[in-house]
Structure formats: C-alpha cells, structure tokens
Write a structure and sequence with these properties.
By secondary structure, this protein is mainly β. The chain is built from no helices and 16 strands. Strands 1-2-3-4 form a 4-stranded antiparallel sheet, with no helix packed on it. The chain is globular and about 45 Å long.
Length: 180
C-alpha cells in the first residue's frame, strides 16, 4: 500500500513505503538491501543499481538532474545509473538513520536524523550539527524561498533563514509539536 493505505498497481519489488520517491519523470526510486531500484512508470521498466552497501537506503530526494540518496551513514547521489558517495556522517550515532536529505540554499548537504540536523560541504568539511538542532528528532527538511523548514518529532518546527535558526511558537493545541 502507498499514501496512507491506497493500494498500488505498480510492479515494485520488495520495498519500504517510507523510502519511495516519485520524481518529475514519473520514475519511482526505492531500495531493497544494497540495490537501488528505478522503476519508470511510462516505460514500465525497472533498472537496478548495485550500491555495494548493506541494508536499505533511508531516503531519496530529487535534485536537478540527479537523485540524492542517503544510506544509514552515507549520503550521495545517483546519476547515470551509479551511486556516488559524497560524504559520510560521524560514527558517533550509528543507530540514528538519515530521515531526510537536501541541498540547502547555502549549497551544503543537510540531513535530518533523530539525534539532530547536520550539514556539510562535500570535500571541504565534515558533517556538523546545526547549532540549536543538536538532539532534536528531525524527520523532514523542506526548502522554500531560501529558507529551510525543519519538522521534528516532539520538538515543533524550526526555520533556518539567512544563517539564523528560528523556532516559531506552537499552535494553541500543540499539534505542531510533531510536524513531520
């Protein structure tokens, strides 16, 4: 099932519905074990990309003409049917998987994990926590008009704007405490 219980007629192999991405070309990206699958809805064909990593990829994100992909502690991109590693997260938190990934307006790779939000510039520095977002269970990142919106599990939401972190107040019923 997909999208809250709807049944899919797509002939996808074993997959985790949390880790699906449908891109602008109507291609479904997902993984099973160390293989990334690329299913073209218009062509009704599947391509396999062997990533040589153990376990599933945890998220995919469209970025221009490539697809960003995150494994438990590695981020990279898929282009021309191969996976290229961009950066590895610190080994300090091996049990915290990458929940979301994006390229920020600052051109850094941002990742959301349940132990905080981190960013790095590939080839220049290592992943470091965004000050103020250490220890939050971040589940979703969204970029809009040069801002990054960060949704968390239990800590509300945050906005990163012009290099500064803001935490808007919660709604009266505190529904936005779990904004993911």
């Amino acid at each position: 099932t997909i999208e809250g219980g709807r049944t899919s007629d797509l002939p996808l192999l074993k997959y985790n519905p949390e880790n699906l991405l449908v891109d602008k070309n109507n291609t479904v990206w997902y993984s099973n074990q160390n293989i990334i699958y690329k299913y073209s809805i218009p062509e009704k064909s599947t391509t396999q990309i062997n990533a040589n990593m153990r376990g599933d990829f945890t998220c995919f994100r469209e970025n221009g003409d490539s697809i960003l992909a995150a494994h438990f502690d590695v981020v990279g991109f898929i282009k021309d049917s191969s996976f290229v590693v961009l950066a590895k997260t610190p080994d300090d938190f091996p049990d915290s998987r990458i929940e979301d990934i994006l390229i920020g307006p600052d051109h850094r790779i941002w990742i959301a994990k349940c132990n905080g939000v981190m960013a790095c510039t590939p080839g220049k520095d290592k992943f470091r926590f965004i000050p103020g977002l250490e220890g939050v269970c971040a589940r979703v990142l969204f970029k809009d008009q040069g801002n990054i919106f960060i949704g968390t599990y239990g800590n509300g939401y945050f906005i990163w704007k012009n290099g500064k972190l803001m935490k808007p107040p919660l709604d009266r019923n505190k529904f936005l405490s779990h904004a993911h």
